[in-house]
Amino acid sequence: MRHPGLIALLAGSVFVVAACEGSKQAAVTRAIDSVVAVDNQNMADLMLAAGNPEEAVSYFAAQVERDPTHLGSQRGLARSLVRAGRVADALPVWQRVTADADATHDDRLMLADTYIRANRWAEAERTLNAVPPTHESYDRYRLEAIIADSKQQWQKADHFYETAAGLTTRPAGVLNNWGYSKLTRGAPRDAESLFAQALQHDPDMFTAKNNMALARAAQGNYSLPLVRMSQQERAMLLHTMAIAAIRKGDTNVGRTMLSEAIETHPQHFEEAVRALRALEGGGRG
Questions:
Q1: Is 168:176 a contact under the CB 8 Å cutoff?
Q2: If we measure between CA atoms, which residue out of 223, 203, 202, 198 comes closest to residue 213?
Q3: pTM to 2 decimals?
Q4: Where does the signal peptide begin and end (predicted)?
Q5: Dist CA 198 CA 190 (whole Å)
Q6: Which of 5-9, 22-26, 137-141 has the highest mean pLDDT?
Q7: Please, what sign has the CA dihedral across residues 229, 142, 217, 238?
Q8: Phi/psi at 279 (nearest 5 deg)?
């Protein structure tokens, strides 16, 4: 004898089980998608932070080819191209990013940065001016400082450099730029102080070490700065100061420092050797 009620109950149970299975499958799918998204983001972050620039370009170019509408991949490609020194290739990518409805003010700042790298100052300034003044960030003030510098608006540049340095936990780069600005203005003492501050934040920044050597030489001080340096860096700084001394007319000092640079370098220092040969060939000062 059949039991219609029992059959109906069992049939209902089948539907419930099927619904539960479908719900579980959907949950699993969502979880997998979430993990994949996180993994993709982690890979993107890794490529941008530590990857070889050209490898990063290849990675993001493949991502863009797979999904040309994904804004994050386009941003990654643009940043990677800039890191690889391929500014001309990066510009159209940043332009596409900033033309997107979901573009941010930070995207426009990166476009302005790329215009500066391409020596297209008018476009950089127009792009920067299009970002509302209420958007205050390290990159905003860093770029404002660079543009003010290019127009020799020194007071504005100093204000923007100082503001930018206060808005980041890693101010070495902007302090180095500020110091170089001071050096080109003929204020080597102020420049040396800023390079020293940059090295306090990043003791391995060779550019700041080299710039500090230039600042000291500009003051007639040919002793190496008291900073951490490798044997090769020491030789390179001696070479930098030697060339600066020669340009100032301190030829004997330059000759001595070139010889010391050649002796100090752990390998053959061809650039210093050529400079010394040229100096010797030109007569003694």
A1: no
A2: 223
A3: 0.78
A4: 1-18
A5: 13
A6: 137-141
A7: positive
A8: -65, -45
- Tokens coding 60: 């993001």
Q: Where are the alpha helices (DSSP H) in the chain?
A: 4-49, 53-66, 71-83, 87-99, 105-117, 121-129, 138-150, 154-165, 172-184, 188-201, 206-218, 231-247, 251-264, 270-281
161-201 pLDDT per residue, tens: 999 999 999 999 999 999 999 999 999 999 999 999 999 99
Longest CA–CA separation in the chain, Å: 122
- Within 8 A by CB and 6+ apart from 246, the residues are 254, 279
CB atoms closer than 10 angstroms to residue 259: 15
Distant-in-sequence, close-in-space partners of 29: CB < 8 Å, separation ≥ 6: none
- CA neighbours closer than 13 Å in the CB half-sphere of residue 103: 18
* Residues 237-279: tens digit of each pLDDT: 999 999 999 998 999 998 999 999 998 898 888 888 998 888 8
Rounded-to-integer distance, Cα 182 and Cα 166, Å: 18
